[in-house]
């Protein structure tokens, strides 16, 4: 089966059946090569990145005030497992059709100093039309705001590429005042990665979480009005 439209519908339906709320396909040529920490000999095998988003539980997010909660920590871990599982299921389906697929871990670092994974799921999702990078430095979707987590599957399966979103945060400033460390600025480019990182390290130490989590700016973002 090599018809891109039919292939795309099949994979999209599979993702939805497994709880994926958002689906899109990015053309890998549109991504910055220097941001991808995988050998080019490996990347050359793939033409597309499938981006899948899971809509986080609004009820769990509503419980967050100015720091992460134990419920959010558990949710974060389970959603990572689900998204990694969707990555495996999609990989298996594509390989059964005779093509290559490689799921990228939902949350794994390969460059600790610069805090980078194999590739940016946010940049992939943006190229796949799921949304844009907002003032809070997260992927903002028109329907769910930033209340989503993401995974990417690289493939050479013939698929229909999505159009990137042309929207932005507009006049919305809802996330600026909520950040406990003032890392979010009016200009997205001025987002203070280090302040945010240090705040998350403090949360992990004081609240005894084994991961750097927060969730405050995730909760705050419902997308522009
Ligand atoms: C490492 C990481 C972090 C680190 C550092 C993030 C960073 N780079 O600034 C920390 C622990 C701080 C972090 C925090 C959070 N993260 Co995080 N994180 C990642 C991870 C695993 C890799 C990011 C990456 O590789 N980026 C690639 C580079 C090219 O993109 P960039 O981040 O824009 O690049 C900048 C930084 O590298 C920065 N930089 C350079 N040197 C240094 C050094 C340090 C120390 C730091 C901190 C930054 C930094 O400069 C670059 C250019 O501006 C991704 C998963 C993934 N593979 O995508 C999740 C991911 C981005 N995180 C996510 C989330 C939700 C969070 C948190 C809300 C925590 C939580 N779950 O409660 C906060 C939000 C912070 C924010 N507002 O941006 C989601 C985002 C979903 C969405 N809707 O957009 C992702 C995609 C995970 C997922 N699978 O869904 N995260
Ligand atoms: S994750 Fe927390 S500390 Fe980092 S920008 Fe969002 S609200 Fe601020
Ligand atoms: S809360 Fe508003 S300003 Fe902040 S990222 Fe979301 S849409 Fe953009």
What does this molecule look like?
With 225 residues, this protein is α+β, with helices and mostly antiparallel strands. The protein is built from seven helices and six strands, in the order H-E-H-E-H-H-E-H-E-E-E-H-H. The protein has helices spanning 4-17, 40-43, 58-62, 70-96, 121-127, 193-207, 216-220, and strands at 22-27, 48-55, 101-104, 132-133, 139-140, 148-155. It has a four-stranded antiparallel beta sheet with strand order 1-2-6-3, sandwiched between helices. Strands 4-5 form a two-stranded antiparallel ribbon. The mean pLDDT is 96. It binds cobalamin and iron/sulfur cluster (SF4) (2 copies). One iron/sulfur cluster binds next to helix 6 and helix 7.
- Number of helices in the DSSP assignment: 7
General shape:
globular
The distinct ligands, each listed once, are:
cobalamin, iron/sulfur cluster
Content-based structural category: alpha+beta
How far is the N terminus from the C terminus?
Answer: 42 Å
Helix content: 25-40%
The stretches of 5 or more residues where confidence is low (pLDDT under 50) are none
Radius of gyration: 17 Å
Strand order of the largest sheet: 1-2-6-3
Q: Largest sheet, if any?
A: 4 strands, antiparallel
Element-level helix/strand string: HEHEHHEHEEEHH
Strand content: 5-15%
């Amino acid at each position: 089966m090599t018809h891109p439209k039919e292939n795309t519908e099949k994979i999209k339906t599979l993702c939805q059946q497994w709880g994926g709320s958002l689906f899109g396909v990015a053309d890998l040529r549109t991504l910055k090569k220097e941001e991808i920490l995988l050998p080019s000999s490996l990347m050359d095998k793939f033409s597309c990145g499938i981006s899948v988003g899971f809509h986080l539980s609004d009820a769990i997010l509503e419980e967050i005030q100015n720091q992460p909660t134990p419920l959010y920590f558990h949710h974060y871990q389970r959603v990572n497992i689900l998204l990694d599982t969707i990555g495996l299921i999609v990989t298996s389906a594509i390989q059964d059709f005779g093509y290559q697929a490689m799921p990228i871990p939902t949350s794994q670092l390969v460059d600790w100093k610069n805090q980078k994974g194999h590739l940016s799921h946010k940049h992939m999702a943006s190229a796949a039309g799921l949304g844009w990078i907002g003032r809070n430095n997260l992927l903002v979707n028109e329907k769910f705001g930033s209340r989503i987590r993401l995974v990417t599957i690289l493939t050479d399966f013939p698929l229909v590429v999505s159009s990137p979103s042309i929207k932005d945060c507009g006049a919305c400033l809802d996330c600026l005042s909520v950040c406990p460390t003032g890392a979010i600025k009016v200009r997205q480019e001025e987002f203070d990665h280090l302040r945010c990182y240090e705040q998350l390290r403090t949360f992990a130490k004081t609240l005894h979480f084994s991961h750097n989590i927060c969730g405050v700016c995730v909760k705050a973002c419902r997308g522009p009005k």
